[in-house]
Amino acid sequence: MNSTSKGTALITGASAGIGAIYADRLAKRGYDLILVARSGQRLDDLAARLSAETGRSVKTVVADLANTDDLRRVETLLREDATITLLVNNAGVGSVASILAADVDEMEQMIALNITALTRLTYAIVPAFVEKKAGTVINISSIVGIAAELLNGVYSASKAYVLAFGHKLQAELAGTGVRVQTVLPAATSTEFWDIAGHAAQKANPSTMSADDLVDAALVGLDQGELVSIPTLQDGAAWESWEAARRALTPNFANAKPAPRYKLA
Ligand SMILES: NC(=O)C1=CN([C@@H]2O[C@H](COP(=O)(O)OP(=O)(O)OC[C@H]3O[C@@H](n4cnc5c(N)ncnc54)[C@H](OP(=O)(O)O)[C@@H]3O)[C@@H](O)[C@H]2O)C=CC1
Ligand SMILES: N[C@@H](C=O)C(=O)O
């Protein structure tokens, strides 16, 4: 337990699963909390438990982040509350439906939550962090941002967005004192799977607990990792994938098509 306040952490999707574990761990690390989700009762129950256990201030905000008005309300809160030092962009939904079997309106809602809300909330807080030369954003992506064929394609693409957004933010914020960590969970035992349409995954032997996922990701944050993949046993495999990706960058721009297109 930490009795010195580290400022306030705003956590989206804090009423259940990974977000609720972040709330628990961050309160125990000394953060006051603002918990955001749609289920007010679940947020209130968690807030009551955490403030009793840790003595930290825990506020709740009921908001549907796929709804424009609710999202703007949380953006305003991020702009106006100068105590906020950490944003956890965790709220997200997934699906196992194939692209063509999925309802396009549901896919649009998924994009609104997984991409638009995460982007707008990041824009709402980062300028203040840059001004203060301090602050942390934790963005929850997924291993399907890389392993795109595993689940629903729109979901995978939304998580690839989070990874790419993080890469560029990390590059632009280097040296400012502001940190951005991108976390890529693999299958984690939460209600995500009930909503995604494959509840059995929660009990699969290869599925990680949300406790282990968050504890490892926070150690990754402490260790200065930009991208944390708690389930990946061989950390060097990620490093070499990243090195190969970055090595390609200077090779893309060229006025002439490559010889394999046989245009010359
Ligand atoms: N579980 C897994 O296997 C994996 C999960 N992830 C990612 O982890 C993150 C957390 O998921 P996880 O904890 O597993 O899932 P859960 O379903 O357990 O939790 C999702 C949280 O997001 C909230 N939420 C959902 N929709 C909205 C909305 N429209 N507005 C505001 N809050 C919303 C839910 O609360 P409420 O319903 O009260 O709004 C809940 O608190 C997601 O981004 C997910 O994509 C990544 C890889 C694997
Ligand atoms: N990352 C999980 C979902 O997003 C999975 O690997 O199944």
From TrEMBL:
Pfam families in UniProt: adh_short
Domain Ketoreductase residue range list: 7-199
Catalytic activity: L-allo-threonine + NADP(+) = aminoacetone + CO2 + NADPH; 3-hydroxypropanoate + NADP(+) = 3-oxopropanoate + NADPH + H(+)
E.C. code: 1.1.1.298, 1.1.1.381
A GO MF label: 3-hydroxypropionate dehydrogenase (NADP+) activity
Free-text function comment from the UniProt entry: NADP-dependent dehydrogenase with broad substrate specificity acting on 3-hydroxy acids. Catalyzes the NADP-dependent oxidation of L-allo-threonine to L-2-amino-3-keto-butyrate, which is spontaneously decarboxylated into aminoacetone. Also acts on D-threonine, L-serine, D-serine, D-3-hydroxyisobutyrate, L-3-hydroxyisobutyrate, D-glycerate and L-glycerate. Able to catalyze the reduction of the malonic semialdehyde to 3-hydroxypropionic acid.
Protein name: NADP-dependent 3-hydroxy acid dehydrogenase YdfG
Record organism: Paracoccus aminophilus JCM 7686
Organism classification: Bacteria, Pseudomonadati, Pseudomonadota, Alphaproteobacteria, Rhodobacterales
